[in-house]
Write a structure and sequence with these properties.
Number of helices: 0
Protein name: Secretion system C-terminal sorting domain-containing protein
InterPro entries: Galactose-bd-like_sf, Secre_tail
Keywords: Signal
Shape: flat
Helix content: under 10%
Organism: Flavobacterium arsenatis
């Protein structure tokens, strides 16, 4: 059994959604004579060279869902689909590009079309291309995109379509199912009003401040259309669910001046929108400040910020869940008085307008990796500020598929790999003899990896790659903890295929296209002195916590220290009992780090203060 010592543990409440569709998208109804289909069970498809080029960063699976053929792309950074040479597509007479997608986690989806021009070759002077971006596609349901080819404004020629490229966020960690990929010259035949209700939110009432939703008890709202709005508002029901309909929506002011909203304990703003025709959607939040009156932007203590979503998906419910931190100029959240929606004159339905205190995990570390404490004599270090390091030829070979940056985290040197599919680290010039070592150690931090692999390669006595005596072994760690430093201390005996260890020439990390920070990469001949959460028999609960936080252990607790995410100590408790109760009611909402020392050993856990 592999041994992984984790210095930090994240305990959060999550709301699970399905990770794959159980039904197929709607069967296309356009006349086959008006379609050039690349992939669909409904039509005869043209020839496609590949649905994943060798320069793609993604994994492809061909699946059948409810009896319908579907393409699944996982760990998606970008994927190229090619129809080159004799298979170039002449879409000159087409007016729309259509694709159906289903995703459980993508927050941005991009579609690029590339035309190789009359010479039919990549890189010629007649190439043209354009990428269209869709923000916040609705998750966990099939979404149909019918995109006018005129929207691909820089695609100057459509007679030699050679590449279709899908990409989006999160980079390297997105999963998307694809179906019904085709061009058509048949008019956009999509509904002009929703026929199904918006997805019902699942957050508990206690974690929500709701302005409008059938799911929750709503706070008072003065008006859903101020007299200075440029919109027409009607109250409607869709599939028995109350909705607000703005038609047309140029801009609408929604006010809570009489009962201003204190959203300081919240982390996100949420809203469902549906429109058949908008091309832009903007959301502005306005805080009137402590004086509670409107002074105007930049005057008095008012603050506001507007977020813009270009090319939102049409004729489908979009679920926007926006971190309040993204409203960067909204310097106060205690006196929210206005919500302003801008729809560019389109018809817009809205539902489920609420704030929530959903936990938002950081995307980059703010504290350095734990400093190793083993003596230099017990260590052979490749990278660490704590030790003298052996020579390393490169931390990213030319055959790697990753982006490397040398960064500092809280003053500590760190390797940052973005879009880490795989990276080769080589010590070919100075191969490592680790026969006296027993453990491989590394600290890793990632906001989005779902898999992490570590491979060690020994070039053998001849010291050459593929010289006949090479050996290697790769270990796979599924679902590693995200958004915290994890210290991995792995017995070299777990690398069972690494039968020789005298000529270590390569270390390879695989991250599934994710962003991964790496520090303290070294071998040691003794295990680390850290103890994981379970081994220490320490319990910390509840998590998330509102007021009282409890700590218990099987032996006397020596001390409890709590830090904020900047590494600053905010509380210290000297204890001598096996149970302690700590009042955190005065703490601001956010993430904290609790360290509990028992029997000279420290257990660490992240806690969420609601």
């Amino acid at each position: 059994m592999k041994k992984i010592t984790q210095t930090f543990f994240l305990l959060i409440c999550s709301y699970a959604f399905s990770q794959a569709p159980t039904d197929a998208p709607a069967v296309p109804t356009r006349n086959p004579a008006n379609v050039i289909s690349m992939f669909s069970n409904a039509y005869t498809n043209v020839a496609v060279d590949t649905w994943k080029t060798d320069w793609s960063v993604a994994a492809l699976e061909d699946l059948s869902i409810a009896g319908n053929d579907v393409k699944k792309y996982s760990n998606l950074s970008f994927v190229g689909i090619e129809t080159v040479g004799p298979n170039l597509i002449n879409a000159g007479n087409m007016t729309y590009f259509h694709v159906d997608i289903w995703t459980s986690n993508m927050t941005t989806f991009r579609i690029k079309l590339v035309d190789f021009g009359p010479d039919g070759v990549f890189g010629g002077t007649d190439n043209s291309e354009h990428e269209v971006t869709f923000e916040s596609p609705t998750q966990n349901t099939w979404v149909s995109f019918d995109i006018p080819l005129a929207n691909f404004t820089n695609l100057l020629n459509k007679d030699h379509i050679a590449q279709l490229i899908f990409s989006g966020n999160p980079v390297g960690a997105g999963t998307v199912f694809i179906d019904n990929v085709y061009f058509t010259n048949e008019a956009n035949n999509v509904p002009t009003d929703p026929t199904v209700a918006a997805p019902a939110p699942t957050f508990p009432q206690a974690d929500v401040i709701s302005l409008f939703s059938n799911t929750y008890t709503n706070v008072p709202v003065d008006t859903w259309k101020t007299d200075w709005s440029d919109a027409t508002l009607t109250e409607e029901q869709i599939a028995g669910n109350d909705v607000k309909k703005y038609n047309p929506l140029v801009f609408a002011g929604i006010e809570t001046v009489t009962s201003q909203i204190n959203a300081s304990g919240m982390t996100k703003f949420n809203i469902n929108v549906w429109s058949p025709d908008f091309t832009v959607f903007r959301i502005k939040l306005v805080d009137f400040g402590a004086n509670g009156i409107y002074d105007g932007p930049g005057v008095g203590d008012d603050s506001e910020h507007e977020i813009t979503f270009n090319n939102p998906a049409q004729s489908t419910w979009i679920s926007y869940s926006i971190p309040l931190a993204d409203f960067t100029n909204l310097t106060s959240l205690e006196h929210i008085s206005q919500l302003i929606l801008v729809g560019g004159g389109g018809k817009v339905f809205i539902d489920n307008v609420f704030f929530s205190n959903e936990v938002i995990l950081p995307q980059d570390p703010t504290v350095a990796a734990p400093t190793p404490t083993l003596p230099q004599a017990n260590v052979m270090s490749m990278f660490s500020n704590a030790y003298t390091n052996v020579p390393v030829d490169t931390w990213k070979t030319d055959w790697s598929n990753a982006i490397l940056e040398e960064v500092q985290i809280a003053g500590n040197d760190t390797k940052k790999y973005t879009a880490l599919d795989f990276v080769g680290i080589e010590t070919v010039t100075n191969q490592l003899n680790i026969t006296s070592m027993e453990y491989f150690n590394v600290d890793v931090w990632s906001p989005n990896f779902s898999i992490f692999k570590i491979k060690l390669v020994d070039f053998g006595a001849d010291g050459a790659f593929q010289g006949g005596d090479d050996v290697e072994h790769e270990l796979t760690f599924n679902n590693p903890v995200q958004s915290q430093w994890t210290t991995m201390s792995i017995p070299l005996s777990d690398f069972t295929g690494l039968v020789t260890r005298e000529h270590i020439a390569q270390l390879i990390f695989v991250g599934g296209g994710s962003k991964v920070y790496v520090d303290n990469v070294y071998f040691s001949n003794v295990p680390l002195g850290t103890v994981d959460f379970k081994t220490a028999s320490v319990k910390m609960y509840p998590n998330p916590v509102s007021d009282v936080f409890n700590v218990s252990a099987d032996k006397a607790i020596e001390n409890i220290t709590i830090y904020n995410t900047l590494g600053q100590q905010v509380l210290a408790v000297n204890a001598s009992r096996t149970t302690e109760t700590i009042d955190l009611s005065s703490f601001q909402s956010g993430v904290y780090i609790a360290r509990v020392t028992v029997d000279g050993k420290t257990s660490t856990s992240r806690i969420i203060k609601k």
